[in-house]
Design a protein that fits this description.
The complex is a heterodimer of chains A (129) and B (280). Chain A has 129 residues and is mostly helical. Chain A has 9 helices and no strands. The longest helix of chain A has 10 residues. Chain A is flat and about 45 Å long. Chain B has an 8-stranded mixed beta sheet with strand order 6-3-7-2-8-1-10-9, sandwiched between helices. Chain B starts with a strand and ends with a strand. In chain B, 34% of the residues lie in helices and 22% in strands. The chains are: A mainly alpha (129), B alpha/beta (280). At the A-B interface, helix 2, helix 6, helix 7, helix 8 and helix 9 of A face helix 7 and helix 9 of B.
């Protein structure tokens, strides 16, 4: 019997469950490798070559090269692991969050100062605020 | 005998640690966050514990996807600050309490909580940011710390009720330790926040305030809230709040709210903070 996944109707949200963790294992372990300074240096010197050392899917590799975080998440990436990529790029969590929302970092930061994204209209897919 | 005297809850946002480490706490963006901890620093100086049992989550620092323990207790003599990709935070090494940790591990496992015992582990911002918020920037931490890592990264985390019951069993474990120790239990993480996807930036002040009210006054009812309610209402990372229930479960039914603070935002997150003292 398939497991119940009551979280699939939360808009703009991917819950990192056991299925995604299985699909994203090598992507996330590649990210984890960037915790070491010499690995970061090798990655920066040749991203494609470094990625080819990992048994990741071509889709996963392309998403990393394009820094498409939403795509990486849909392919099993978890945000705390993906954080190693934007940290390697010298970019902040707020920058990464902004790129996933399609907003500029400035507009995103301004939304947070104004109290953040409201829950109204954001609880269910198709919900009106 | 050892006794639990107080519980502390606080968010553990990494940017707060960076603001402390880079001397930015008085900047206009950060000053209101740190103002909420001024009372707490004075209070803890007057109520210094011997040991802090600190429930937090690791953020892909000590645990990769190779091993994902649901509950892991740090039994080592000390824990080094983790290199999270930009070098370790410039904070002191965290001294453990191996004797009490071993006692708690044995007691909790015999109470049907199947802990993972960790004898070597680095600790990331989830653990060190709360220490910095409460103790500032000392040369060495003023008490010993037992790190208690809870998985909230890989769904599903333990339920709120499981965390609450674990806190209750923790209290029995501490009270059966034969040494005169003042122990505080800290629950960290939260409050509402979402760090991923097009819904990133979600904040729910009404949910957060209700959580604080219910955690204090009717914790067992709050503990029965299902995961989906946290994720839908408080953001995918708001699920970290289940860790606060470990702290609350370790306290008396009646507590005094010594301090309560709430602020939005710190980077992507709503900051919540409580000091609760046991009442007879």
């Amino acid at each position: 019997m398939a497991l119940a996944k009551p979280y699939l109707d939360i808009p703009g949200t991917t819950i990192f469950d056991a299925d995604l963790a299985r699909r994203g294992y090598h992507l996330n372990m590649f990210c984890m490798s960037l915790m070491k300074a010499d690995h970061r240096a090798r990655f920066k010197a040749g991203e494609r070559k470094y990625l080819d050392e990992w048994p990741m899917s071509e889709d996963q590799k392309q998403a990393v090269l394009a820094r498409d975080y939403n795509r990486m998440i849909s392919l099993g990436g978890n945000i705390y692991f993906l954080a190693k990529i934007f940290s390697t790029d010298g970019l902040s969590f707020q920058y990464a969050a902004a790129t996933m929302t399609g907003m500029s970092q400035e507009a995103y930061a301004s939304m947070m100062l104004d109290g953040g994204r409201p829950p109204e209209g954001n609880r269910y897919i198709g919900e009106k605020a | 005998m050892a006794r639990i005297t107080a519980g502390i809850a606080t968010s553990h946002v990494p940017a707060i640690g960076a603001a402390i480490d880079l001397g930015k706490t008085q900047e206009p963006y950060w000053a209101p966050v740190f103002a909420g901890y001024e009372f707490s620093k004075r209070w803890i100086a007057a109520h210094e514990p011997d040991v802090v049992f600190l429930a937090y989550n690791d953020h892909a620092s000590a645990f990769s996807l190779d091993v994902v323990p649901t509950f892991a207790i740090g039994c080592a003599e000390q824990f080094a600050p983790a290199d999270e990709g930009w070098g370790p935070r410039p904070v002191p090494t965290v001294p453990g309490h191996p004797e009490l940790a071993a006692h708690v591990a044995q007691s909790l496992i015999q109470s049907d909580f199947d802990l993972t015992v960790i004898n070597k582990m680095d600790v990331d911002h989830g653990l060190t940011v709360p220490l910095s918020l409460m103790f500032g920037q000392p040369q060495s931490w003023p008490c010993r710390v037992i790190p208690f890592a809870v998985n909230v990264v890989l769904y599903p985390p333990p339920s709120g009720l499981r965390c609450f019951r674990l806190g209750q069993a923790l209290r029995q474990a501490v009270e059966s330790f034969d040494a005169d120790l003042d122990v505080q239990v800290w629950g960290t993480g939260g409050m509402s926040h979402q760090l991923q996807g097009p819904r990133a930036g979600l904040i729910n002040k009404a949910f957060d305030q209700s959580f604080l009210d219910r955690l204090i006054a009717e914790p067992e009812a709050q503990a029965r809230m299902p995961h989906i309610d946290y994720m839908r209402e408080a953001g995918s990372e708001g699920i970290e709040l289940v860790m606060w229930l470990i702290m609350r479960g370790a306290l008396n039914a009646r507590v005094k709210t010594t301090h309560r603070f709430y602020h939005v935002p710190a980077s992507n997150t709503a900051v919540g903070h409580l000091i609760l003292e046991n009442q007879p």
